[in-house]
User: Fold Cupin type-2 domain-containing protein from Knoellia flava.
Amino acid sequence: MTEPADAHRTIRLGPRQTLTVLSSTPDALELECVWQPGTPPPTHWHPTQHEHFDVLEGELTVVLDGDQRVLAAGDALDIPPRTAHRMWNAGSDPCRASWTVRPAERTEELFRTMARRPGPLAKLGVLWRFRNELRLGSPRR
Assistant:
C-alpha cells in the first residue's frame, strides 16, 4: 500500500490538533492547523521565535500573557518571543488557521517528535532537546 503524496506534510499532534506543513525553510515554518473542540494545553513560550496566526474558520480561544480572548475567522494574532501563551478550540465546531513561526529553528522536528507521543519520562527529554524552541510556563521578566 502506498502512502498519499501529502502524508509526510501532515502531523497529528493528538486527537484534537492536526498540522499541515505548507513550507519549511530556515527562515519560516508555514503551517495550516485544525483544532477540534477540546481543552486548553499548557502555557508555553518561545525564547526567540515570533508566531503569527490568521484564523480562517471557526473560533480559537487564546490566553496571551494572562489575558483571554476569542479569535474568529478573519482575526489575526502576533505572538512575540518570550510571551506566555496557549490556544485551543473551546467552541463546538472545528477551527482552522494559518500559522507561521519565524525563524523556523527545529520546530517542525519538535512537532514530529511530539506526534510520536513520547511517554512521561521521554517528554522531559523532548523539553530539554527542544529548549530553544519551546519552554513551559511563563518566562522570567
In short: The radius of gyration is 15 Å. Residues 120-129 form the longest helix (10 residues).
